Amino acid sequence: MEFLFLLIALVAVCGVVAVPALRRRRFAQGVMQGAGAAVDPVCGQGFLPPEQLDVRLPGPDPELLAAVEEARRTQDWKPAAELLARTPADGSAELRWQRVQTLAGAAVRELAEAPGTGGMWLRHWRVVAPKDPGGAAVQAEFLVQQALRDPSSQDFRMILEEARTVCGEAALLAPGDPVPYIVELGVARGLGAGEAEFQSVWETVLSRAPQHMGAHLAALRYWSAKWHGSQDKADDFARRAAAGAPEGSLLPALPLFALHDHLDDTGLVRSLFQSVTVREAIEGAQYAVHHAPSDHPVLPHVRHLLVWFLVRAERYGEAVEQLRAVDGHIGAVPWTYEQDPVAAYTAFRARAVAGWQAGRNYG
To answer: How far apart, in whole angstroms, are the C-alpha atoms of residue 164 and residue 233?
Structure first.
């Protein structure tokens, strides 16, 4: 915990590491230009104007946002603690994982905005209630997110080692909760753990929550070519998870995330998005969306990525269907990879609606 105090006292905080993909930004700019400035194609379609889009979450969670806003406004950590205390740690624990991530991210952003003083509510939480498993989980995820903002920092490994220690504390405080081990997946990825070590943590996660979509997305990043794997390893991981998923699971959508993570400039051509590979990944994600519970916390994540692929595949009617389900909250991949998530999202939305209204639809 001592390192958390030191970290919050730091004067400088570096920029976000999640580097926006230039290729996607250029496409979004082109989409917006193509939509035309004279007529807004979303007018009259029930979509929210850009200024009302919320970039904090992929979908609605009023209780979580109320706790985040209270912490920011008053530095009171108790609403966040009470929220996590009544958020189940057993079963799928998808909602708990998403709430831990969001609370940690809020503290990271506050610290970035006000170095030395931002996010003090998290420090108070850990000091006043050191045995609270929710507070320990949020602190661990806070440290991981903070470290991954700047992997070149001389403190990078020290922060992640501290995060690993706090993960252990959180796991002891809530033995059945998979969240501390999911956080540890990020620690292992950042520290460059070997495959055997990473697999050991992964097996622990699976023993607690075998269908956890958020955990699979976290593990997928380790196997990607951007970190410690390759496109083949990421694809294999995603396909095996999808193949073994029961009905109602979101895991059949995992290959679409693996595909998105390995697109490059040379491959972003019209024919790619109408290829068998992309079509099958889209169909897997659509199947998952159709059969998953309507209140699944990760469902909006899948819908947002479907929008991105469906627009690029010129399947505008299907894209509009997904947009109607998620419009209002855009805190999800692929928009969060962009420097301006709102501009990127509204550009794709405009392209989808314009194409749908004009009856332009591939396939």
So the answer is: 25
Neighbouring residues of 102: CB distance < 8 A, sequence distance ≥ 6: 56, 57, 61, 64, 68
Q: How far apart are CA 260 and CA 255, in angstroms?
A: 9
Query: How confident is the model at residue 205, as a pLDDT?
Result: 97
Q: What is the pLDDT of residue 42?
A: 77
What is the spatial distance between Cα 118 and Cα 120, in angstroms, rounded to a whole number? 6
Query: Two tokens at 111?
Result: 């610290």
Q: Angle CA(55)–CA(58)–CA(62) in degrees, nearest 5?
A: 85
Q: Which residues of the chain have pLDDT under 50?
A: 1-23, 32-39
Q: Give Cα separations from 323 to 216, 308, 316 (angstroms).
A: 24, 10, 10
CB count within 10 Å of CB 227 equals 14
pTM to 2 decimal places: 0.88
Please state the length of the chain: 363
Alpha carbons 11 and 15: distance in angstroms, whole number: 13
* DSSP code for 154: T
Going by C-beta distance under 8 Å and a sequence separation of 6 or more, which residues neighbour residue 213?
A: 94, 249, 250, 251, 253, 254, 296, 298, 301
Q: Name the residue among 285, 282, 283, 317 with its Cα closest to residue 300.
A: 285
Tell me what the pLDDT averaged over the chain comes to. Answer: 89
- In angstroms, rounded to a whole number, what is the distance separating the alpha carbons of residues 283 and 321? 14
Q: Report the alpha-carbon angle 237-241-244, nearest 5.
A: 140
User: What's the Cα-to-Cα distance from 245 to each of 104, 206, 287, rounded to whole Å?
Assistant: 30, 13, 12
The pLDDT value given to residue 316? 96
Specify whether the CB–CB gap between 113 and 72 falls below 8 A. no
Q: What does residue 230 show for φ and ψ, rounded to 5 degrees?
A: -160, 170
